[in-house]
Amino acid sequence: MNVAVIGLGAISPLHINAIQSAGGKIVAVCDIDPAKFEKARKATGFTCSIYSNYKQMLDSEDLDVVHICTPHYLHAEMICACLDRNINVLCEKPVAINEIQLNLIELSVVRTKAQLAVCQQNRFNASVRYLKELFKDQEIVAASGNLCWQRDAAYYNSAEWRGTHLQEGGGVMINQALHTLDLLQWFCGMPETVIAHNSNDTLQGIIDVEESQLGIFKLKNGGRFIITATNACTHSFPITLMFKSAETEAVLIGDHMIVNGKFVTKSDGLPLFGKEEWGVGHVNLVREYYACLREGRKFPIDFYEAEKVVELILALYASQGEEVPIGEREPVGRQKVLAR
Ligand SMILES: NC(=O)c1ccc[n+]([C@@H]2O[C@H](COP(=O)([O-])OP(=O)(O)OC[C@H]3O[C@@H](n4cnc5c(N)ncnc54)[C@H](O)[C@@H]3O)[C@@H](O)[C@H]2O)c1
Fold first, then answer.
1. 42 Cβ partners below 8 Å, 6+ apart?
2. How far is CA 246 from the centre of its chain?
């Protein structure tokens, strides 16, 4: 499998490691910042080609898969460029930051022979899989996700796109808490409405997006799931997720799982899902994606699956305290969209 990586910033080492552990060969990397090349080339054994123009790379190399690890606003155009050349693509989350980008991506998705996968890797954590299996035949009637992290001025000043409406597309919700919302949706299903509030109290003058977000989602069965997320804390705590069905109440705090009041542990009393289970999501996801490509299977987190969390985030941002419906985007196949 010949692989290329676009964007060699903070997340790229996880992709390079995951590609190598999944048996991929990194033949090219691309970044507009030449300072990023050396580290990436070292990690790949100094064998790959380097590019500063990603389209030139797509046209020059014989690629099976491209990994997109660039700022949010660039995902849509880079996905389309790959799919329009029938090159498989794994894009970092979020798949897009607005409806126009979703429509453009879908146009490419319906035409291409390649597969788009999106990196919502927490679905591949062992603890999450355990819970998914536990709730397989149970109807969830209440759920909650909480993210309480530290993201200060130094973090937001580390790259120009961070904390900007135009380039990040939002704040804590579309970046840090996207995975938490994705898991709530994956377990509970698409909700009907949301009432949401957001604020920026500690990062005024530093970011022009939300630092904190509350969302109250109404489920089709009358239940609710709630998300609370903030980057205003002075420490990053483990994420908590809680799910309730008629039979089961499950709580996941970082690695620690409590089901119906009892810690889920190994026979020696240690947590079932130790530290080694966290941070391996990228490896698990990339291995499964490559297996799907090799075996001609469909990867589960495709465009249509990944757009769900984007739709929920756009509804959160639109709410401003009002109850808003979670609308379904009309597929482009049924729209009069001008061909590009
Ligand atoms: N899945 C996760 O858990 C997770 C964690 C962290 C980041 N991410 C995602 O990864 C993506 C990148 O985040 P990051 O923290 O690595 O950002 P970053 O700013 O550290 O890195 C982005 C890189 O992209 C490069 N770049 C910008 N424009 C480019 C272009 N036109 N062509 C080629 N390269 C270009 C930049 O020079 C930079 O090196 C984001 O979508 C982010 O949400 C995901």
1. none
2. 30
Q: Which CATH class is domain 2-122+285-302?
A: alpha beta
For residue 53, the ligand 1 atom closest to its alpha carbon is 32
In this structure, CATH architecture of domain 123-265+311-315 = 2-Layer Sandwich (3.30)
Which pLDDT belongs to residue 340?
39
Q: What is the pLDDT of residue 239?
A: 95
Which residue(s) pair with 224 in the sheet?
142, 218
**Cβ of 13 less than 6 Å from ligand 1:** no
Residue nearest to atom 15 of ligand 1 (CA): 10
The answer, yes or no, to whether any atom of ligand 1 lies below 6 A from the CB of 11, is yes
Which residue is listed with tokens 């969390």? Answer: 309
Cα 63 to ligand 1 centroid, rounded to whole Å: 20
pLDDT tens-digit map of 174-210: 999 999 999 999 999 999 999 999 999 999 999 999 9
Tell me, in angstroms, the distance from the centre of ligand 1 to residue 7's CA: 6
Q: What CA–CA distances, in Å, run from 328 to 176, 218, 297, 299, 311?
A: 24, 15, 26, 22, 8
Tokens representing residue 173 in the block? 């919700």
Ligand 1 centroid to residue 206 C-alpha, Å: 19
Counting Cβ atoms within 10 Å, is residue 37 exposed (0-12), middle (13-18) or buried (19+)?
middle
